């Protein structure tokens, strides 16, 4: 068991997005273990950078999917992503400019809280919308055959 474990309750019923969320959980676990093992700041910095980069690329991918499905909640969702990214960059800046190497533990906790709230809240909201669109697309395909 990791520090955070993905389970069915986090599914947004989209295999690509679920895969991204699972990878984020995995990197949070890496960061948390590295912080507990008191890895050096360089090593922690690398895992932190990897996490930040992955979160950013996931947000971009999610926004692309929402836009391509004309999801009405897109503007608010994008704004929430931007707010989260600002918090992430603020932490990253503080980490890089301090001598406190235990801080990534705090960050792992914060990211876990932010992402859990975000996935279980806003990400869940797009799930039924996307599922309906997928079903509609399938129906159209069957109809046109
Ligand atoms: Fe997400
Ligand atoms: Fe999201």
Structural features, described:
With 145 residues, the protein is mostly helical. The protein has a single domain, classed as Four Helix Bundle (Hemerythrin (Met), subunit A), CATH 1.20.120. The chain contains four helices and no strands. The longest helix has 42 residues. It is elongated. The structure holds fe (ii) ion (2 copies).
Task: Briefly characterize the structure.
The protein has 145 residues and is mainly alpha-helical.
Helix-strand blueprint:
Layout: H1 15-36, H2 41-68, H3 74-96, H4 103-144
This protein binds fe (ii) ion (FE2) (2 copies).
Q: In DSSP terms, counting alpha (H) and pi (I) runs of 4 or more, how many helices?
A: 4
The CATH architecture term is Up-down Bundle
Number of distinct beta strands: 0
Mean pLDDT: 86
Question: Top keywords for this entry?
Answer:
binds fe (ii) ion, 79% helix, 145 residues, 4 helices, mainly alpha, elongated, Four Helix Bundle (Hemerythrin (Met), subunit A), single chain
């Amino acid at each position: 068991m990791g520090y955070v474990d993905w389970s069915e309750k986090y599914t947004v019923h989209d295999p690509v997005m679920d895969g991204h969320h699972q990878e984020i959980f995995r990197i949070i676990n890496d960061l948390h273990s590295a912080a507990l093992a008191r890895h050096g700041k360089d090593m922690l910095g690398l895992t932190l950078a990897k996490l930040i980069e992955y979160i950013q690329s996931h947000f971009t991918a999610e926004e692309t999917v929402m836009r391509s499905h004309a999801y009405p909640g897109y503007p608010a969702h994008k704004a929430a992503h931007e707010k989260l990214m600002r918090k992430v960059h603020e932490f990253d800046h503080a980490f890089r400019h301090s001598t406190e190497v235990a801080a990534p533990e705090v960050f792992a906790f914060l990211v876990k809280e932010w992402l859990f709230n975000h996935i279980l809240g806003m990400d869940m909201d797009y799930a039924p919308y996307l599922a309906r669109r997928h079903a509609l697309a399938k129906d159209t395909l069957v109809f046109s055959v």
